[in-house]
Design brief:
Shape: globular
Number of helices: 20
Helix content: over 70%
Distance between the termini: 29 Å
Strand content: under 5%
């Protein structure tokens, strides 16, 4: 029991403590060594916890008989925690080079390392109180990352991020109080912990459906679901590229994980299936998918285009999750993994393009990238691989995810067919805003002045993350069978 407790709590507490230790010594001469070692230790103990614990509920602090701070490394938590533990060290390695020109780095690394632990805490939360507290902590811990440059635009983006996040959190908090009243306990339970006899006796089903909808919408603010989405394309481009990568690739998934817990572990899929809440959230997800894709298609600023793409792509997960079918769960898990890899790679690739300067010109806009593939062949190749995964071309993880989403949507009748059409339109729009960047980069045309090509020797700590993340975006499709088998044997039996 003690060993399980240590292994479950360590990935959460260790990076938070070591991150804040950076504040005790403002100038770390061996800063990179310290941050790198602490990050890789956190990843190692996360993988150990995922494979060596048995899913026991570990209580860190009992507040009352019904309220506690507790963690459980169940199978959904293990899957997401391992994904975070794989991507976070790669982004940290990239940040060592990227942030050399962008101080203050001590503050950035302190909050960045601590956010690692808080995100693991969101994944491993054992009850609704723990989930809510760590969800809120993650907002405040990532605010300094967004306003790192302290420019007016960054501060304005940070304020927008804060207001939207607090609005969503307030809606979720209201749900927490209702679920506390009508719950048998607050511990996450497959199928939900609501006291259905009490709800039926008091004839409060309609009220709880409304509360559930508002709670899901509140948590959905972090995932960028319409109408609580406007902060995302504003905040992500203003953050330094390493922060943008994890904000888009991983931290938006915290909203999805919170929604997943409410749907399958608080109210239960049977409570929602066939209700107006399911229909409303499916429609909102489809609206977000289309809106994000269309805005990305017309956006010229490179990082804003990728950010708008995240608005669309994260809502694929929401759509799949709200199908409330085994195929929907498979599609949601595959999309979380494939999108995290691909979107992190896209932001890091964009960061290299912006970092690389030719004749004093920084490439911030998509129409400035003509011929850049000649100077940055590795970067743009990785960008291309991540792009085809987001589009959903065969063999990639994005293709497998969308395949299961479409299969799950077929059972919904007219709304499902409409959903498949929106997925196809979004895929075409995704190809329209990503592939021209790749073709212009590698095939600039006969009038391009090749005499000015100056190959950029990318530092190895920027190259390795790009190569591994782009490979991961493809390999999640190549090894989709193993991922789906894990979902079929470990996650679905407990949910549906």
């Amino acid at each position: 029991m003690m060993g399980n407790a240590v292994l479950t709590l360590a990935p959460v507490l260790f990076p938070i403590i070591t991150g804040f230790a950076l504040f005790s010594r403002p100038i770390f001469e061996d800063r990179h060594v310290y941050v790198g070692v602490m990050t890789f230790i956190t990843s190692a103990i996360t993988f150990l916890a995922a494979f060596m614990t048995n899913g026991e509920l570990i209580t860190l602090w009992r507040i009352t008989d019904s309220l506690s701070i507790a963690f459980r490394m169940d199978y959904p938590a293990r899957a997401f925690a391992c994904l975070v533990a794989f991507i976070w060290p790669l982004v940290t390695l990239y940040a060592f080079e990227y942030l050399r020109r962008r101080p203050p780095v001590d503050r950035f690394y302190a909050f960045f390392l601590s956010t690692f632990g808080i995100l693991i805490g969101v994944a491993c939360a054992g009850n609704l109180l723990t989930l809510y507290l760590f969800y809120e902590l993650m907002t405040f811990m990532t605010l300094p990352l967004v306003m790192h440059s302290q420019k007016r635009e960054s501060i304005r983006a940070t304020i927008s991020y804060l207001l939207y996040s607090l609005t969503g959190a307030a809606m979720a908090l209201g749900g927490f109080f209702f679920f506390h009243v009508y719950g048998v306990s607050m511990d996450f339970t497959p199928g939900g912990f609501l006291d259905m006899a009490k709800i039926t006796a008091e004839n409060n089903r309609d009220m709880l459906l409304t509360v559930t909808f508002l709670t899901l919408l509140g948590f959905g603010a972090k995932a960028g679901i319409v109408p609580l989405h406007a902060w995302l394309p504003t905040a992500h481009p203003q953050a330094p590229t390493p922060a943008s990568a994890v904000l888009s690739g991983l931290i938006t998934k915290a909203g999805v994980i919170a929604m997943f817990r409410v749907v399958y572990y608080v109210v239960g899929d049977d409570f929602l299936r066939g209700t107006w809440v399911q229909t409303a959230l499916l429609c909102m997800a489809l609206l977000t998918i289309f809106t994000g894709s269309m805005m990305a298609y017309i956006e010229k600023h490179l990082k804003k285009r990728i950010a708008w793409s995240s608005v669309s792509q994260v809502s694929y997960v929401v759509f799949a999750m709200m199908l409330l079918t085994p195929d929907g769960v498979r599609g949601a898990v595959m999309q979380i993994a494939a999108h995290a890899m691909a979107k992190s790679c896209l932001f890091l690739s964009a960061g290299v393009v912006i970092y690389f300067t030719l004749q004093g010109v920084n490439y911030h806009y998509a129409d400035q990238l003509r011929g850049v593939g000649k100077e940055l062949p590795i970067t743009m190749t990785c960008f291309a691989l991540a792009s085809v995964s987001l589009i959903g071309l065969p063999v990639t993880g994005g293709f497998t995810a969308k395949w299961y989403m479409a299969a799950g949507a077929l059972g919904l009748g007219g709304l499902g067919i409409f959903g498949i059409v929106i997925l196809m339109v979004s895929a075409l729009l995704t190809a329209g805003y990503l592939l021209p960047i790749v073709t212009d980069a590698f095939f600039p045309g006969d009038d391009y002045d090749y005499s000015n090509v100056v190959p950029f020797h990318m530092p190895v700590n920027m190259r390795i993350p790009l190569l591994l993340l782009s490979a991961g975006a493809v390999l999640t499709g190549v090894f989709a069978g193993q991922i789906v088998e894990f979902v079929n044997s470990k996650i679905i039996p407990a949910l549906l």
